[in-house]
Design brief:
By secondary structure, the protein is mainly alpha-helical. The chain has eight helices and seven strands. A three-stranded antiparallel β-sheet has the order 2-1-3. Strands 4-5 form a two-stranded antiparallel sheet. The protein has a two-stranded parallel sheet with strand order 6-7. Helix 3 runs parallel beside helix 4 and helix 4 runs parallel beside helix 6. The relative contact order is 0.10.
Length: about 200
């Protein structure tokens, strides 16, 4: 719910819906992000900032919220980049997964020092299971490995994750380290230490 005279967000989510019909005419409902596509970048950023504040306000010692954002598989690179940019503009400090990130998205992450947790094991653990075409899985994995290599060459911060959806969770971590070593070679431990240090400082 937004005050259209000032542009200020008054409420988000269910609280915003409950305001409809009970407030002055200058308060309107907006849907800046619908079906995974952003129609209003500025309002999406403001909405995310309000949600982040709501998630973090319970304690002075509550860490910044970890954010999971999904987009439909059929979105364009521009639409994908817009969603990620909105999250970063709103204050998200790390991004997890992202095997299909474009070079432009990787460059934005690197330039803003946004930590990337690529969770390669989400792809690697699909190999040899008979559920998907092995050639297709390998092609996706090789693309993700190239993205990791490209990202660190851009100066980006990277940390290990797992198919459990969080960094350093035991399930799948050996697969993750093995795949990261394929991508990063001899510099793997040094590069991961830098990213992991950032996580440990924040959490």
């Amino acid at each position: 719910a937004v005050d259209k005279n000032t542009g200020k967000i008054l409420q988000v989510g269910a609280a915003a819906r409950n305001m409809l019909g009970r407030t002055p005419g200058n308060v309107v409902a907006m849907h800046p992000l619908k079906d995974g596509v952003i129609s209003d970048h500025e309002m999406t950023v403001k909405m995310l900032q309000a949600l982040f504040r709501e998630a973090s306000k319970s304690s002075l010692f509550t860490p910044k919220p970890r954010v999971v954002i999904c987009v439909p598989s059929g979105v364009t690179e521009v639409e994908e980049r817009t969603v990620i940019n909105a999250a970063m503009d709103a204050g998200a400090e790390s991004v997890e997964h992202g095997a299909f990130f474009s070079r432009e998205t990787l460059l934005r992450l690197a330039k803003t020092r946004t930590l990337w947790v690529p969770t390669l094991s989400t792809i690697g653990n699909l190999r040899g299971k008979g559920r998907f075409d092995e050639g297709a899985v390998q092609a996706i994995l090789e693309s993700a490995l190239r993205n990791v290599d490209c990202f660190v060459k851009m100066g980006g911060l990277i940390a290990p994750g797992t198919d459990a959806g969080a960094w350093a969770v035991p399930h799948g971590i050996q697969t993750e380290f093995s795949l990261l070593r394929q991508a990063l070679g001899a510099e793997t431990d040094t590069l991961l230490e830098k990213g992991t240090a950032v996580i440990q400082r924040k959490f």
